[in-house]
């Protein structure tokens, strides 16, 4: 058994110690926010915090992670209230969303050590690949998250996970509840 703390909970993995942390998190712990991208450490989609440092989980074995504190995107904040998550939404720095968890983890690690980074420091600390090309908005989002973390700015919260479908239907006119009648409340 390989023991570590994942998202503030003790976890024992009964797996080969050479198993990449990425696979243990996704396959055994069902923490699928950490993405498999390239498998060789180039893309950053699998980024997690290991003892507070952003590392590519495809390159860390569970033996190397033993006894350490791991934080995945699911553990960054349960309600998406982390300044990085809020700023990524506010600055529209999310496109398809595949790379977003790794980017959020790298940005959170940077802001923990440097709450007021320059554009160059952001680009150096967040080497993640994004096929959608959100880089200009990403820099603005990280700078904004830094201002939020320093209490110089606030951001209106993004919707909480698990929004009630009826509330969503009222907020988004193009979305209607199934089975609603033909009185304009849904499809006929």
Automatic annotation (TrEMBL):
Record's keyword terms, sorted: 2Fe-2S, Iron, Iron-sulfur, Metal-binding, Oxidoreductase
MF annotations from Gene Ontology: 2 iron, 2 sulfur cluster binding; metal ion binding; oxidoreductase activity
Domain 2Fe-2S ferredoxin-type: 1-76
PROSITE patterns to which the protein is assigned, alphabetical: 2FE2S_FER_1 (PS00197), 2FE2S_FER_2 (PS51085)
Top-rank taxon: Bacteria
Protein name, per record: 2Fe-2S iron-sulfur cluster binding domain-containing protein
Positions of the UniProt region annotated as Disordered: 156-188
Species in which this protein is naturally found: Aurantiacibacter rhizosphaerae
Coiled coil stretches, renumbered: none
Pfam name, any one: Fer2
């Amino acid at each position: 058994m390989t023991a570590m703390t994942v998202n503030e909970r003790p976890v024992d993995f009964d797996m080969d110690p050479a198993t990449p942390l990425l696979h243990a998190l996704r396959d055994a712990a069902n923490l699928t926010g950490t993405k498999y991208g390239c498998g060789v450490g180039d893309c950053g989609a699998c980024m997690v915090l290991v003892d507070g440092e952003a590392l590519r989980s495809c390159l860390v074995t569970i033996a190397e992670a033993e006894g350490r504190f791991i934080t995945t995107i699911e553990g960054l904040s349960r309600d998406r209230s982390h300044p990085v998550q809020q700023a990524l939404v506010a600055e529209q720095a999310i496109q398809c969303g595949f790379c977003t968890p790794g980017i959020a983890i790298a940005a959170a690690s940077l802001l923990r050590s440097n709450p007021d980074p320059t554009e160059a420091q952001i680009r150096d600390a967040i080497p993640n690949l994004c096929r959608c090309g959100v880089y200009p908005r990403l820099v603005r989002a990280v700078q904004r998250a830094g201002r939020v973390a320093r209490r110089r700015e606030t951001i209106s919260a993004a919707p909480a996970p698990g929004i009630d479908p009826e509330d969503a239907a009222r907020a988004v006119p193009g979305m209607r509840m199934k089975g609603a009648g033909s009185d304009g409340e849904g499809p006929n």
